[in-house]
Write a structure and sequence with these properties.
alpha/beta, two-stranded antiparallel sheet, about 60% helix
Amino acid sequence: MAGKPIKIALAGNPNSGKTTVFNALTGSRQYVGNWPGVTVEKKEGKFRFEDHEVTVVDLPGTYSLSAYSLDEKIARDFLVNERPDAVVAVVDASNLERNLYLVAQLLELGAKVIVDLNMMDVARSRGLTIDARKLEQALGVKVVETVASRGIGLDRLRRMIHDIRKDEPPPGFKVFYGRDVEAAIEGLAGLVVEKQLTRGVSARWRALKLLEGDETEIVLLESNPDAAEVRAELERIRTELEHKYGYDSETAIVERRYGYLNGVVKECTHREPGVAGRLTMSDNIDRVVTNRWLGIPFFLLLMWGTFQLVFKLGDPLIGYIEALFEWFGGLVSGALAGSPAWLSSFLVDGLINGIGSVLVFVPNIVILFLVISILEDSGYMARAAFVMDRFMHALGLHGKSFIPMIIGFGCNVPAIMATRTLESRKDRILTILVNPLMSCSARLPIYTLFTAAFFSRNQGLVVFSLYLMGIVLAIAMARILKGIFFKHEVAPLIMELPPYHLPSIRGVLNHMWERAWLFVRKAGTIIAAVVVLIWFLASLPWGVEYASQASIIGKIGMFFAPVFSLAGFGNWQAAVSLVFGVLAKE
């Protein structure tokens, strides 16, 4: 008989290899959606080990349980409120002290934690030896060493996950924060218990987060009418500690926690003399790709290559798909020669053309996300954001926003899809809003038509000025929209450059498939539905000629024709094309 299902969370810092661990554990049994109420991706997967089915939830990368971004808030809320059976904390073994900060907070929360020392090959290449047994004893957790990109150590990790439910609850993990802070925690924890504010976690943890100034905890406290005494005591304690230390209580807690972890790392690691200061391959590559003078030209060259690959390779595939659907439509039309005309028209002009209009976007989107996945998994994407961040930050955008903006010159559809690589909701919305101002390839024939008609002597200059105007407008609108809607949101510039490594084929293909399928499933259903809607409008009332002036769509064209006649488009067919062109574009 099958055992009770197990649910675990994968948590870790960005660039710790967490997604590689997730892909290696779950394989093809993955499900991608959105977290409730937000646009951030939610990844779940399953695997079986002996008699148990294990559900793995891949949380957004986070450095701590004090949430600043939307992604960090999602990870924090899941860990605190959902309380999975265990948390696998994926740790970059080559950057141990920084990564263990999240582990310490998970242990303070009281979670059952398995520490996965991932990227052990990188740690060893830097002369770092980690004594996993000593680390287990110091933290009171199970520790496993892995190289997830090569599948090393994953069987042992699966065994630990399977056995975690048999383990006793973890002993109370405690960092000593100094006499003054400990007294403050104890006093505040007593009030938290008295006012019944623990909400499923220890009073010490709630008190600690309040002293740290955790935004989520402060908001919950301020919204509780029965917590006035706790708020007053918290304010008094924080003021008193700041007066004693000369800095706020959050800084005091962070310093003590890092001090504790520094001692743990020194006790459990050994670094080979002479290796620490040696330049790695990643350092040598970065001397070129992040160079003050060479970084931006290299990035632009890479983006140009991406642009060329997406549209030079994608356009012929689009032609094949169009030809395939044209052939299939003809086949269906011939097979239904004796059937009512409306049935043949509905299947060919409505359904088949509707599905075809979705699938013609797929080659460009698949190639785009294939390239982006390779750049992300290799470690270059962080460098691209670093190189472009200063310029994009001046516009109120993240460095990564530059990539969708460049791709927008080819096609706005995959460009807007590419904004899913941006972590911040603010950055995603701003980039999506201004991206249509980048002139896509579909506009070039229109530009050419108008410039040939009105500016034949300076056609090239005018077309270039139209592209340039789009860029200037995008910059201006980004500044205006940020000032209107996001003026109080200032994203901290935190840039981490992970070591370069060869992307895994499975990881790249998984990322590409997830994002392409998301487009087909979400955007595709809307596009297909609109095409079918247009067919109905062009076919009704029954008995009229398809797409004639007597149809509903013809009457819509007649209604708008006087408006477009001001621009020289006086016939109803042109009005219909322009009105429904909005649907085709958006």
